[in-house]
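Q: How would the structure tokens look for this protein?
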Amino acid sequence: MTTLHDKVPQGLDRKEAEVYRHLDPARLPRHIAIIMDGNGRWARRRHMPRVAGHRAGVAAVRSTVETAARIHIPALTLYAFSEENWKRRPTSEVGFLMSLLSRYLKAEVPTLNKNNIRLEYIGRQHELPATVQERMAWAREATARNSGMVLTLALNYSARSELVDAFRSMVDAASQNGGIDHLRIDEDLVSQHLYTRHLPDPDLVVRTSGEMRLSNFLLWQLAYAEIYVTPTLWPDFRGVHLLEGIAEYQKRERRYGGLNHNDAHAPVGTIKA
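A: Here is the predicted structure in token form.
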């Protein structure tokens, strides 16, 4: 006889297991995207430098990634470093973030392999420091044979730049295959030239720290994603918070611009907008 306890994946702590028991495993998101925000405010509230918030955020990444893998989420994408961060943050902070990224990749590869997680990246990686690119390539190769969750780090990423790069790629491909006069652009073609062409579009996007904006993140891919905003600052975010976001996601009816069941059968004039 199967009980609720039997369906809880191994590795979840008590709080995570309690939330998971109320989830429908058949309706988990295929792809979750997270805008990790609040490191600076977390540090400021503790009268610490901003870099302390970034350092504390690593524990949040570890907990969230492991929980997502344990419940068999196929894909998780983390907005780690935006193109705007690169241009607008102090040089010292950017340098710290690059060093932190390199240390994270070196330290976390064993954990990724233990959890059967494959690592990928999106963004203009070629603009990052050469030493960071080398560490990124090493970590990707070290996890390339894993067959579980795909963890994608958005680094030096901008959704608008991604669309620019996609259209450039389409034009380049057309110029080498009959010329641009034969180019026929549709949604499928655009999707095939995005950084995320190997992933399904996210079903759920999570934003920490209570901010109500997408911050130039996956603007094309998030067209029909459910948005979950939590006031929790990123360094305090853990796997249980991710599960709470999934619980909220499962309460919603995804209509993709259509009608829900009740509206579809309502008399003319009573259908909701």
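The CA atoms of residues 84 and 158 lie 8 Å apart.

The first strand starts at residue 31 and ends at 35.

Upvote if useful.
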